[in-house]
């Protein structure tokens, strides 16, 4: 007996089955998944929650469907051209519409599996399991309604799972970084926040719930004079807590280092790269870390003794940040970023620098605090905050470099065949130029006096992390 005969017999068994309650449900579920409507709607619902993990899962799910659907419909179906099953054994109540496209593989099953796999890569089990159940129901409904043979569905599921996993090549999944000396404090922290000073540059209404959770903490508004207020708070606090984006957190980390106090990061900025690397995605995560007393020692990098937590950069990215800040109050941060990137691509020019004594014309440079996982010119994520290294990435001009080629280098890094891209892991690097150099670090820009020495302070910063 060949595989095709086994497939037909399996289909006949499903067609002969009578599952009470599902005669009405499964055909409608199958129809809801037409053209991915079910999954795009679910992605919209998850994205609207504002929960970072759910938003990432929703976006990854849409990307996975974008990979799975063309591969099935434009390649798989046209390659195999299998006929649809005969419907003489399928009760008419189940048959909604007879598709005209080839049967193998199942596109509905591929989209369902792709979305479910993407969700499983990002979200907790309480979300993943219902989505997996829904995806399995859609896949089964394609056989139950007579649209596909079981083999079509299995092939579609396999293709969808592969598409979901492939998304990790272009967008790595986020996981908390490894940190050193993870300990649980013996003394209990005051659950109401006594001894905690919270410095915030957020709107007071944004932190109303935080004031309720930590009624005995002191709250300091730092809409202006940020560094002075952080310095005063760090000098007086037992624990320094900071609300804001990466720039504000970086300034707080510098103050915490100077006064040897632990830092509690409350992720209320736009991107919150450092907090997410610690595994803190929400204020609730930060409070759980505080109440548990779980602290760790992590690396901090510095440029000329100015600490930074994520990356420092010069060249086109510094110009992009300056342009974005000039427009974001008028049109919003993300539109300003898009417009700025377009203008920088058109007008940016390389800067002449000496990198460890070697002359370079640098179009774009990133120096990361610890090694980043991806190998492109733009760092994205880390899984270790204690390696004692700087991640240095340069897009240099060794010969005429057209801007479109520079963009290709930025997107592909060392995989561009004629790349002027350099990647190295070092403990320190010195950059010199004629006069000051415009540098961005943790989203803030400044004119830094050269030579600039980028160094590391291994395992110096004490931070609260979730257990």
UniProtKB/TrEMBL annotation:
GO molecular function, one term: kinase activity
Record keywords: Cell membrane, Hydrolase, Kinase, Membrane, Transferase, Transmembrane, Transmembrane helix
DAGKc domain boundaries: 223-307
Localization per Swiss-Prot or TrEMBL: Cell membrane
Lineage, broadest ranks: Bacteria, Bacillati, Actinomycetota, Actinomycetes, Streptosporangiales
Keyword Plastid: no
Protein name stated in the entry: Bifunctional phosphatase PAP2/diacylglycerol kinase family protein
Pfam hit, one: YegS_C
